[in-house]
Structures are given as structure tokens and as C-alpha cells.
Structure prediction request, 104 residues.
Amino acid sequence: MSIGFRLKKIRQRKKLPQKEVARRIGISNSRISNYERNYREPPLKILVLLADLYDVSTDYILGRTSNPKRTENNYDAFKEMYDEIERLELRKLYILKKMSDEFV
Prediction:
């Protein structure tokens, strides 16, 4: 999937017209159109502004991930899962210790 295609789909999901996107990030409507039709690629500064506006990661726009969430959200989710695994491991250790104590 191309950058332009992703940009267009994200914008449509957010229900924003091209003119509104252009106004919010301070560029012309024709530049947004060119990005979405793959006539031009957005420079890094514009890519970051678009990601912020759409509340997605730049990696998602670039097609490097299928997860639109930003990195800090991913970190929080990872930390939550890690903590849960750690709790499970401690619970397993407790159960193993309890079982071994019963057999000794």
C-alpha cells in the first residue's frame, strides 16, 4: 500500500476534507492532493504534522507497520503485558513452592 493511499484512507476515516487538512498543517490543498495521488512524497516535517493531526504513527503512514497507534501507546501496552506476565510468573513460582512444600 502506497503512502498516498494510506494518507487518503486515514483522512477519509477521520472525515476530514483535503482543504481542512491543508489549513490545519499550513500547506496548500494541491500539495495534499499530490501526496494522496503519489505525485509527490511529503517531506519529513509534513509527515510528522500529518501523523500528529491523524493521531497515527509515522511508521503507519509509511507502511512499516499495520498498527496505527503511536509508539508511546505501544510502550504502555507492552509494559502492561510485561507486568501481567511477571505477576503470572510470580504466581507460578508461589504455586510450585507450595506444591513442593506439601511433598517435603
